[in-house]
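Data card: per-record layout.
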Amino acid sequence: MYKIIGGDQKEYGPVSAEQLRQWIAAGRANAQTKVQAEGSGEWKPLADIPEFAEELKGHAPPVPTAAPSAPPKTSGMAIASLVLGICGLISCGITSLVGLILGIVALGKINKSRGQQSGQGLAIAGIVVSGVCLLMLPIGAGMLLPALAQAKSKAQTINCVNNLKQLGLAMRIYANDNKDHFPSATNWCDAIINNAGSDKIFKCPNGDPSKRCHYALNAKLSDLEEGKFSPDTVMIFECDGGWNVSGGPELALMKPRHGRMSVVAFADGSVQQVNESRFKQLRWEP
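The structure for this 286-residue chain is written out next.
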């Protein structure tokens, strides 16, 4: 059995070697993670324990699960995008092309920063304003509209994927703190919200803004012990919306939010985009 110090500097465990291997695979532990073996008072880097050498190969350092202590920094690129877009109103769209590019790049970086950067609204505003200015140019009108829509759709899909990755991680943290058991399907949102860090990750950018959550838990995993079922079992998936919603493939979206794709998180921590025909063929039974 082992104890570890997570990226949030909290102590977790004791956990079995098998559980620790699952954390390595999920990205929650890496070679620098401090580990204390049962019966030992010494903390060592995980890389110093030969038992886990094979699992550590090729694994990147884990993403911190705790919210940053300092407030997120507003993206300067997002601000520049909006300023250049507005300037396009008086420059006949000359600066708007740069503003559009900066806005798209900034939006992608913000979505990938896991809360380290803010300014998503500024980036979207910069994209929109720059796009409108460019539409005033006859030649650019027909070319930029599809690119703008595709960029926005891709950014929203990336946001949704990141949401499910963080929700899956919050589920595993909850299990670690509750004798390796997942929460009950009747109150899973309430159970993991403290581990999630923010209630924003419960919402898909394309979901109904009046709904508090746009995801559902596979009801078959209710109160089950982590690691006692197939890792390719569906864990969390997109639904119409609600809070503490759980069920199975019957909750599938009639019209997927991301083109023809739905975003699904699996028990092993992976997240995939699946089409309508594959959705119901996924593994729902543990």
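Known properties of this structure: The longest strand covers residues 261-266. Residues 206 and 257 are 6 Å apart (CA to CA).

See the next section for split statistics.
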